[in-house]
Amino acid sequence: MKQIKIALVNPPLPGHKQRGTGTYLEELIKALNKCTEIEVTLVRINSDISKFDLVHYPYYDPFFLTLPLIKIKPTVVTVHDMIPLKFPNYFQKGLRGEIKWLIQRQSLKGAKTIITDSYASKKDIVKFTAISEEKINVIYLGVREEFKVISSQKELDEVRVKYSLPSSFILYVGDVNYNKNIPGIIKSFLSATQKFENIYLVLVGNGFINNSIQLSDINNLISKLRLEEKVIKLGFIDLSDLAGIYNLAKVYLQPSFAEGFGLPILEAMACGCPVVTTNTSSLPELTGEAAIKLDPKNYQTLARSIIELIENASLRDQLIKKGIERAKKFSWDKCSQETIKAYKKALE
């Protein structure tokens, strides 16, 4: 049987490698390469694709020209989410962005098949593009093997010392964009500190160390609430160390207004860290009954759940077990198998 030659286009946007989109590309390539039916080649956006049977663009941005209008080969596009369009007041596109969105939307309609991370994202794609539901395949992401329960206390102690982590902390990993609701994390944490004096908040991600308007607002809020000595901001962390940090955390908190998927939540569950998140967008799909899901704007309720998870050992153990089992349902091999089905569908 003839191998299907796939051109997988490296996203042209800077910084994607250290985000969920970078994880998706890296893990998808590794999983696809296990399959003998296809031959996958990573190419640049302007590469010659004439020798390939199909082209897969694994990233889509409504305000940047990541797709060609004219497609000389059957095309598959992964659209992780439509969050910039869901919150237009917080993702300003300007006139150029508006023009690019019109081009990107039209270009997306020319794809043979669209892949997205959740049914919530599928619903948004249909809403904003009027593309038929039949064209959109929901394929869940996986969790990397590095994210697991670590039994070695020596290994955990080394991570704690390396990053000067306190004995008790709440954790968040990710971006600082509006939809992540970082002010909600900080305000919920403030309420939790009134119950536990020795608890800290650890924020992981480049957005917490690289200057930006969002970081300035975050720092101002931390200062206003007098939490400077309680909040620890770390940049990008290597996988092995990040798994250790998830293992050490008392609670993983991600009260997002919306997500396309929510990889850090899956990573936390796989590492045995109980999760408090929200009942919006993809998050109920992702977590099932394995996390506490609340209104993202109700900071007091979020804080009470954090306190309960720390105080109630039975509830904590129950969520940890459920989270570990839930995370096992998501794998990159499963993601790649479903992706290959999408490729075949596009070639029909």
TrEMBL record:
InterPro entries: Glyco_trans_1, Glyco_trans_4-like_N. SUPFAM superfamilies: UDP-Glycosyltransferase/glycogen phosphorylase. Signal peptide: none annotated. One of its GO terms (molecular function) is glycosyltransferase activity. GO terms for biological process: lipopolysaccharide biosynthetic process. It comes from the Bacteria. Coiled coil: none annotated. PANTHER family: GLYCOSYLTRANSFERASE WBBK-RELATED. Residues 167-325 form the Glycosyl transferase family domain. The keyword Transferase applies. Keywords: Transferase. This is Glycosyl transferase family 1 domain-containing protein. The keyword Hydrolase does not apply. Residues 51-145 form the Glycosyltransferase subfamily 4-like N-terminal domain.
